[in-house]
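Exercise: predict the fold of this chain.
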Amino acid sequence: MRKRFPTRIAPRDLEILTSLDRTPLTTEQLCRLSVTFGSPFRDQHNLRRRLRALMQAGLLKSWPYAIATEGRSPRYFRLTRDGYRLLYGQDAPLPHRRTFEEISHGHHYHTFALAELIVHLVTAGHKQGIVMRHFARENSVSITAGDFTLRPDCAFQLARSDGAVFNFMVELDNGTERVRSRLDVESIERKLRGYDLHQSQFAADDPSRYLVLFVTTRSVGRLDRILTLASAVMHNPQRTVFLGCSLDQLSQVDPFGSAIFRDHRGLKRTLIPMLNPPTKNRAVSMTETVLA
């Protein structure tokens, strides 16, 4: 039997809950993301009022971020178990309990930055007719290759307007892990070797093939070191497995229209190959742009 709530649940409420199922979001982040909703929020005031109603209905919880921002610390929102069950049904198996709990303070910067990345990719893609789907939240995917076990910060698929799909794993780098160390479980080198080994089982045209996005939050120089190391450890340097960019640079451009990502060879490209737009006085062409 479906649970009754003290407020009417509208389609836009389900869009809010679906967004928060991906990652915790602040009011400002959620307001930006709402441009992808059927009915976007025009200002944060109306959104806050709706979030309060959903909290009173027991569908959401909120806590303050312990991060430096202008003014007071923003609050982030997460689903409750009732919010999750409203999306997926009363009998749906629940994810790990930490999905519904307060985030440890030491993880606040990482969570906020990851949310910024997700919001930017979703909203930029929306303008280009690109949809993010099959989203897997942080630590919900485990990849095993040889002696390596990898848990990306998130994974998703991007679907282009012509039906073409592209798979991605994300590694958000905050500069806290060692770059080189084959013995250190938390090192960037082990991640590079593990992903490269796992990718070696896929043919170039395999629909399960994915790219790994390394997004740095503190230093462009660190990204240079990561991509240089990737070139050194890859079994087949002719393959494209890793793409890198800093979060600051990425947030300032449309990653589908600007070649902001670069691979281990230094080649720049958009996040996915884009279709050439038709031009005047020329027959319409659906040829893909060659980016790498």
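Check your answer against the key: The two ends are 53 Å apart (CA to CA).
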